[in-house]
């Protein structure tokens, strides 16, 4: 099925860079947006509009005529609440409300494991696990999941919330369970778009890892069947990894380093994320 118009927020980000090309092939018009000045060479059918998620009057016109929004725009780290309020909280409201006013059918949202980051990894939580945010960043994900649920219940506007664990190169022991490859990310977003009916759905964004700490069984109807497995990196990663400290929240909880930092303090600063965004 080919759509008339899709909108991608966060198009200048690392994950957005891998989504632009496949999304452009799913529609006649892909409108990519971010706060960056530009995003490189555009794909056939793609246009770019600079806009601030926190400003409704900038977001509202972009969604006119859109079938769906793939909402990946946000500050992607823990920050003081006041810094996250505009892009991560108000920005989500602006997307949902503008989408509703324009008759958008569905929103596919980049949620995060940090919405449930204070759950223990050993509990192997499902998609119905109660919210336990590990940070203000995770709280914004909880807010947006609840926003999507409310707009479905009250206004029959569909949404799929992708609780991404870690879509980055596997260079630490946690990532052996949490890795989401870019190919599996594209497959996940595609299934969230082309499944005929989704209502309000939550699904974990994780590859087919032997050590995955979450259960997607209740979202199986989406047809997401990841192919990649982080176990291929295990020998090299574990050779350089000391024994786990079972008293360290970063080791034992779903949120990893985000579960251990103080509120408002960067979680990414405790990680080694390689910026390998796709170049155009």
Automatic annotation (TrEMBL):
Alphabetical UniProt keywords: NAD, Oxidoreductase
The NAD-dependent epimerase/dehydratase domain, residue ranges: 7-164
Highest taxon of the lineage: Bacteria
Database matches in InterPro entries: Epimerase_deHydtase, NAD(P)-bd_dom_sf
Entries under PANTHER family matching the protein: 4-EPIMERASE, PUTATIVE (AFU_ORTHOLOGUE AFUA_7G00360)-RELATED, NUCLEOSIDE-DIPHOSPHATE-SUGAR EPIMERASE
Family of this protein: Belongs to the NAD(P)-dependent epimerase/dehydratase family.
Pfam families assigned: Epimerase
The protein, known as: NAD-dependent epimerase/dehydratase family protein
């Amino acid at each position: 099925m080919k759509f008339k118009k899709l909108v991608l927020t966060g198009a200048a980000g690392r994950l957005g860079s891998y989504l632009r090309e496949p999304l452009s092939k799913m529609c006649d018009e892909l409108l990519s947006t971010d706060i960056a000045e530009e995003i490189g060479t555009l794909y056939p059918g793609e246009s770019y509009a600079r806009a601030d998620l926190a400003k409704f009057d900038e977001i509202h016109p972009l969604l006119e005529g859109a079938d769906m929004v793939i909402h990946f725009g946000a500050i992607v780290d823990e920050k003081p609440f006041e810094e996250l309020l505009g892009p991560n909280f108000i920005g989500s409201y602006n997307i949902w409300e503008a989408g509703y006013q324009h008759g958008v059918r569905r929103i596919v949202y980049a949620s995060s494991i940090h919405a449930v980051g204070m759950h223990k990894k050993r509990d192997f939580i499902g998609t119905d696990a109660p919210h336990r945010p590990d940070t203000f960043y995770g709280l914004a994900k909880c807010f947006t999941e609840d926003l999507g649920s409310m707009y479905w219940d009250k206004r029959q506007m569909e949404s799929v919330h992708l609780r991404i664990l870690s879509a980055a190169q596997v260079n630490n022991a946690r990532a052996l369970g949490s890795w989401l490859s870019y190919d599996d990310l594209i497959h996940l977003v595609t299934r969230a778009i082309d499944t005929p009916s989704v209502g309000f759905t939550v699904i974990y964004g994780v590859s087919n890892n032997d050590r995955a700490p979450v259960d997607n069984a209740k979202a199986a109807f989406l047809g997401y069947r990841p192919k990649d497995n982080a176990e291929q990196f295990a020998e090299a990663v574990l050779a350089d990894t000391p024994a786990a400290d079972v008293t360290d929240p970063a080791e034992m909880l779903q949120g990893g380093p985000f579960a251990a930092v103080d509120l408002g303090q960067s979680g990414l600063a405790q990680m080694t994320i390689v910026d390998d965004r796709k170049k155009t």
